[in-house]
Amino acid sequence: MTEAILFDLDDTLVVEEPAAAAAFLATAHVAARRYPVDPAELARTARTRARDLWRAGPAHAYGEDTIGMSSWEALWCRWEGDTAEVRACREWAAGYRAQAWRAALAEHHIVDPALAELLGERFGIERRLRHEAFADARPALDALRRTHALALVTNGASCLQREKLAGCGLTETDFDAVVISGDLGTAKPDAAIFAHALDRLGVTAADAVMVGDSFERDIRGAHAAGIRGIWLNRDGAQPAPEPNGHLEIAALTELAPLIRGSTSG
Fold this sequence. Notes:
The chain has 265 residues and is an alpha/beta fold. It has 12 helices and 6 strands.
């Protein structure tokens, strides 16, 4: 019997990757008003250079390997907190934001450090203008919270994930537990983060399901923790052959009938 539902946040309940791509493009348009550069090409270059710098930088081991953040999230995260790891990321990120755009501009034969600084700050502004929950998120949560315990299980810095949640009009009170990798020091697909969510809800793995868009992090991770997975495949990607027993939906509107059918069966 399904008693609890665990939800991923990014690209499950809230729009993440498309919002980041739009923010890169909007920021690149600022440069295009000053120099003859294709904003779409500059946006792609900035995203690539940001990823390269992120992977080569000192924050990567904690930011991506430990708590599961992406390079574009690091570009606008405020890194709020007092742990040594968060302080180090905060200090490094101040230069990273401008450096990513400086490297991107240079690839397009533009040398303008002041503009790079401006674009580094502008990206965060543009990304914050694009907080958006999927249209099916609120109805799904409202329909299921009356009958099930709900948890949010998400990777990323604590301050950033909470900012996304609030910015999209969702709240922590929509869930019985909010579990963020940045608070724990471990990220999906590690079974430990799922186990922590189950403990917070007071349920067993057999009585829970995990809903998420990432087959690797959400579905395989949940499976390793003994939790059934429901893969949210909005884009119609080719289904993965394992783990066996997972379910698949194309939208969150399918979730409540599926859960109720599974529970009644």
